[in-house]
């Protein structure tokens, strides 16, 4: 892929004095939804602040769509950042905040106004637009930050915990919005500790621990590369004991657990393809009614736990 | 170029909206308008006394000019304008860091130098307006009690004097604004540099000639209509020409704002360590 469509970290390190932020990170992020995963202190926010030019790397170089952060006029036309900083300039309304920023982007009065209203509408804040930000709830402030990040139609949207403070309905809407952006060719970089939501929306993940990238790429791909951890497959069926007794014919099956409700079993195998073939045979030969077969640990949380284990302790 | 001007003016507008009515400016308004209130009170008292005594001795115009020169140079210039500039301009960036709002500007597609200029302009416009009105009002009130006050303004030196005081007020806000914009960005605690600069500027007349010419006060004094006696230990230095003084003051402010812009280019957002 051409470098003007990528976010590139070239051997980037960031130290705060002697404290490590991130170390020797080399990444190339393609368009789509990319999630940053890791516990507090893993380096997610440092990575985002570097990506958006709020921090300068101690070593290495960063280019977003082939533009360096040292060229703010081009750089920030392409980037929208919804940071975790929950402070706003005093005395300004949500409308005025966004409108001022649109004026700084160089949009004319009418264009700035229409973009402001459009962004406020996207995040459901038109009714409270003229109230001062100081009087907003946490969720409303989060929406305004999101509107600020979106209003100039950036090509790269960087969102640090964007779902914090949003109710479930708003979360679903915002996730849907991110998906649409990604489908239109944008970069959407998300850090979130809400794992199942990251799972739903992400095209790829970057897993961080202690300032290092421990894995990156498509989550299924990452999981399949972890050969030392057998893949878990959940089979929901009417006679799990029959299936369990038959799957041990295969050497690659290392563990089978019958589900507590008696209507399924969890199989750990080192060769899932071989297991699926065997399962087909067992089901046909024994006339077993199967409700569903799904991977049980091809998700961000499980992969992260396998990779980092107890060293990655702390809230994700 | 047009975009830079628009952006600088937008930053200025936003800043003025945010700050002019902010609580932190109460000290500035007090410094600017408390003397107006005091002079108004004194003028009313004197007017009442002159009505009662009818022919009692009124202060002469030269006396009042001396009094005003002393008041302006000691209180207005060295205290009110200087410390108000220190308060306001030091906070242009430092305040944003403390309130954790600097990233909003730094995430906008605006050259850092333009942000520095916009913020500096906002401070200068606000301070110049506040202290210019204070200068006009105190000046008018000072001569209000004198019977020849109107003649002094319409036929004498009243208006030229007032214009020079106004020019000095605006240039003082500009030059000190430049100084404190830079110190506010450079130092975590801008109080210490403010005190050092304050002492340097307040007692500049004890410095040898060469060093006096490295003070802002020397060039401001060169533009004033009357110079007060600073005592037997002061080093008397010839005033610089008016044009040169104006150029120096504007040039110094421009240089310092440019340096602030360069410093802002290297600024990182690490609120937690501030």
Strand fraction of chain B: under 5%
Low-confidence segments of chain B: none
Number of strands of chain B: 0
What summary fits the major beta sheet of chain A? 6 strands, mixed
Determine the mean pLDDT of chain B: 88
Strand content of chain A: 25-35%
Find the CATH superfamily of the largest domain in chain A. P-loop containing nucleotide triphosphate hydrolases
Oligomerization: heterodimer
> What portion of residues of chain B is helical?
over 70%
Dominant shape of chain A: elongated
SSE sequence of chain A, one letter per element:
EEEHEHEHHHEHEHEEHEHEEHEH
How large, in whole angstroms, is the Cα Rg of chain B?
21 Å
What's the CATH class label of the largest domain in chain A? Alpha Beta
Task: Please characterize this protein's 3D structure.
The complex is a heterodimer of chains A (316) and B (274). Chain A is built from eleven helices and 13 strands. Chain A is of the alpha/beta class. Chain A has two domains: 3-223, Rossmann fold (3-Layer(aba) Sandwich); 230-296, Alpha-Beta Plaits (2-Layer Sandwich). In chain A, a hairpin with a 2-residue loop joins strand 1 (7-16) and strand 2 (19-29). In chain A, helix 3 (94-104) crosses helix 4 (109-122), helix 4 crosses helix 5 (138-150) and helix 9 (240-247) packs across helix 10. Residues 310-316 of chain A have low confidence and may be disordered. Chain B is an all-alpha fold and 274 residues long. Chain B has one domain (2-17, 61-273). Chain A binds chain B through residues 16, 49, 52-56, 70, 72-77, 79, 81, 83, 85, 87-92, 96-97, 100-101, 103-106, 148, and chain B through 3, 6-7, 10-11, 13-14, 17-18, 21-22, 96, 99-101, 103-112, 265-266, 268-271, 273.
């Amino acid at each position: 892929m051409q470098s003007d469509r990528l976010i590139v970290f070239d051997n980037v390190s960031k130290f705060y004095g002697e404290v490590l932020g991130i170390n020797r990170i080399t990444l190339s992020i393609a368009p789509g939804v990319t999630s940053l995963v890791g516990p507090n202190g893993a380096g997610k926010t440092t990575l985002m602040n570097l990506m958006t030019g709020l921090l300068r790397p101690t070593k290495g170089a960063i280019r977003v769509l082939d533009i360096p952060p040292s060229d703010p006029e081009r750089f920030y036309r392409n980037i929208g950042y919804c940071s975790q900083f929950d402070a706003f300039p005093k005395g300004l309304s949500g409308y005025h905040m966004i409108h001022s920023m649109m004026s700084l982007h160089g949009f004319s009065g009418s264009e700035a106004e229409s973009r402001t209203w459009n962004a406020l509408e996207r995040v459901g804040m038109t009714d409270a637009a003229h109230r001062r930000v100081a009087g907003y709830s946490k969720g409303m402030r989060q929406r305004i930050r999101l509107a600020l990040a979106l209003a100039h139609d950036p090509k790269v949207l960087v969102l640090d915990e964007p779902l914090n403070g949003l109710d479930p309905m708003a979360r679903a809407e915002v996730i849907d919005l991110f998906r649409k952006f990604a489908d239109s060719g944008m970069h959407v970089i998300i850090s979130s500790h809400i794992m199942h939501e990251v799972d739903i929306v992400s095209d790829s993940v970057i897993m961080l621990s202690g300032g290092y990238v421990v894995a990156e790429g498509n989550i299924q791909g990452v999981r399949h590369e972890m050969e030392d951890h057998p893949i878990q497959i959940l089979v929901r069926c009417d006679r799990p004991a029959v299936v369990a007794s038959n799957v041990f014919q295969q050497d690659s099956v290392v563990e089978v657990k019958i589900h507590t409700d008696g209507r399924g079993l969890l199989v750990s195998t080192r060769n899932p393809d071989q297991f699926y073939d065997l399962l087909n045979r067992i089901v046909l030969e024994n006339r077993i009614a199967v409700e569903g077969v799904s991977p049980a640990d091809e998700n961000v949380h499980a992969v992260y736990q396998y990779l980092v284990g107890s060293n990655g302790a702390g809230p994700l | 170029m047009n975009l830079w001007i628009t952006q600088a003016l937008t930053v200025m507008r936003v800043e003025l909206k945010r700050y002019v009515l902010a609580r932190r400016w109460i000290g500035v308004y007090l410094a600017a308008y408390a003397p107006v209130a005091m002079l108004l009170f004194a003028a009313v008292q004197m007017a009442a006394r002159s009505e009662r005594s009818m022919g009692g001795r009124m202060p002469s115009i030269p006396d009042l000019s001396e009094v005003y020169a002393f008041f302006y140079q000691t209180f207005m210039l060295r205290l009110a304008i200087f410390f108000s500039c220190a308060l306001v301009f030091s906070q242009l960036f430092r305040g944003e860091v403390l309130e954790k709002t600097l990233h909003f500007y730094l995430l906008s597609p605006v050259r850092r130098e333009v942000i520095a200029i916009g913020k500096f302009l906002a401070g200068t416009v606000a301070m110049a307006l506040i202290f210019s009105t204070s200068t006009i009002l105190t000046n008018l009130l000072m001569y209000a009690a004198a019977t020849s006050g109107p003649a002094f303004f319409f036929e004498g030196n009243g208006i030229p004097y007032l214009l020079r005081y106004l020019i000095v007020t605006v240039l003082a806000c500009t030059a000190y604004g430049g100084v404190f914009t830079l110190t506010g960005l450079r130092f975590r605690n801008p109080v210490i540099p403010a005190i050092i600069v304050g002492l340097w500027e307040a007692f500049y007349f004890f410095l040898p000639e060469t060093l006096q010419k490295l003070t802002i006060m020397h060039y401001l004094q060169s533009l004033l209509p009357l110079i007060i006696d600073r005592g037997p230990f002061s080093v008397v230095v010839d005033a610089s020409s008016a044009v040169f003084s104006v150029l120096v003051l504007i040039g110094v402010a421009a240089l310092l704002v440019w340096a602030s812009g360069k410093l802002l280019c290297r600024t990182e957002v690490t609120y937690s360590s501030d």
